[in-house]
Amino acid sequence: MDKFKALVLNAQEDQVTCSLRTVKLQALSAGEVLVKVAYSSLNYKDMLAFQKDGGVIKNYPLIPGIDLSGVVLASVDSSFKPGDHVLATGYGLGVNHTGGFAEIARLPAAWLLKLPDGLSLKQAMLFGTAGLTAALSIKELLHAGLQQDSNLLITGATGGVGSVATRILAHLGFTKLHALVRKDYQVELATSLGAQQVIKATEILKHGLLERQRFDYVLETVGGEVAAALLPKISYKGAMTLCGNAGGVALATNVLPFILRAVRLVGIDSVNYPQVQRREVWQLLANKWNVANQLLYNEIDLAEVPTVLEKLKLGHHYGRTIVVLDNTLDAAK
């Protein structure tokens, strides 16, 4: 398959343009493994990649898409063979290396994982980068002492990371799940995912240096003023994970939650997370934490990607969106 379809981003003066093209293998970045892509997914970082000053892509033209699942066509690395079902998220995929919004991808073997038993190619991208980030956040909160009856707040609870995290935690039997949302229609969505209480963002944004201890733990996906407003509300010895910047990159806080309540702030990075530990997290997602079929999601094709990313930019997107490249590949396993 020397020619195939791909979305290609290019920079023209003050804007980024996107076109659906037929390209050749020579358009792909270098790598040891050639993959027939089954699915990719849409993430906040993908939306940023489509912006001129998004801070994601520096060199054009480039095929975007920061994750993918598919089947190996060829490999010069002995770790993989034709027919292997694989997935990839993060590293330079869709950033400085041609990504998942194409029918064919070529990747370094070190970026790929074999698909765990119990997970289909479709389910792998129902989770995708957002699901991996959610799982890493949960893992860190459990390490910090999170219990099933802890008061846990999930921000951005109907977004990509937040919706997956809420569903996993409800599936695991957590009984005090609080969801933070901004819009009225998101209340019902958060409840359907398993949140026992839904809080509007306007209720928490005003804050002092130190406030009533309201939440034991916070899974924070937004950043900016939301993260700053929540730190003074966390209980003694509590913790907050932080994985997003949709609300801004600045964090206007003070030291009191840390030195008077021993609150821990834990950063979450899914881009360069080590492969050995990454494999362990995907095993959880394939087994005990497998809620892929219970998630809120939509399916689109390559041509629809720019339109849906624009909705994400405007805050009109919820749950997960997967990009279907070849939905017949799951049957080949």
Automatic annotation (TrEMBL):
What Gene Ontology molecular function terms does this protein carry? acryloyl-CoA reductase (NADPH) activity
Record-linked InterPro entries = Acrylyl-CoA_reductase_AcuI, ADH-like_C, ADH-like_N, ER, GroES-like_sf, NAD(P)-bd_dom_sf, Zn-ADH-like_protein
Check the record and name the SUPFAM superfamilies matching this protein: GroES-like, NAD(P)-binding Rossmann-fold domains
Q: Known Gene3D superfamilies for this protein?
A: Medium-chain alcohol dehydrogenases, catalytic domain, NAD(P)-binding Rossmann-like Domain
All residue ranges annotated as the Enoyl reductase (ER) domain in the record: 18-323
Domain of life assignment: Bacteria
Q: Which SMART domains match?
A: PKS_ER
UniProt xrefs under CDD domains: MDR_yhdh_yhfp
Coiled coil spans: none
What protein name does the entry list?
A: Alcohol dehydrogenase
State the organism's lineage. Answer: Bacteria, Bacillati, Bacillota, Bacilli, Lactobacillales
